[in-house]
Amino acid sequence: MGIRGKLEVEVEIKFDGDVFRQLSGQDPELVPNITPDKIHTCDLHEGELGKLDSVISWYYTVGDLLEEFKSLTISIHVIPRGEITVVKWSAEFEKIADDGPYPTQIIDFCIGITKDIERHHINA
């Protein structure tokens, strides 16, 4: 049985978290335009954009994570903390091999998405 674990990172952003929520929840189809080197397309399969229980697929390039992990779940939370807002990414995983890599590559990828969205919003 592989090692189970959880990696988390918090990224402070220089804008209100509602903008981030809107892009990732209500308007996810805009994200590929903001960060095209990371997120290539976004497809709605069921439901409506911005609604609970909708099914959305994101197409991205990171590598074949299924070669290294039995399971990998990424979650995101936008947390207001007084004058700042934090985007918290969590990666819960089970490695195939105990000596295999940890999912730091996907965490770096998530940080990059956050920074691209921040840059886009600040420059808009």
TrEMBL record:
Q: Which Pfam families match?
A: Bet_v_1
Native species: Chenopodium quinoa (Quinoa)
Task: Give the matching SMART domains.
Answer: Bet_v_1
Q: Where is the Bet v I/Major latex protein domain?
A: 2-124
A biological process from GO:
defense response
- SUPFAM superfamilies hit by this protein: Bet v1-like
Q: What is this protein called?
A: Bet v I/Major latex protein domain-containing protein
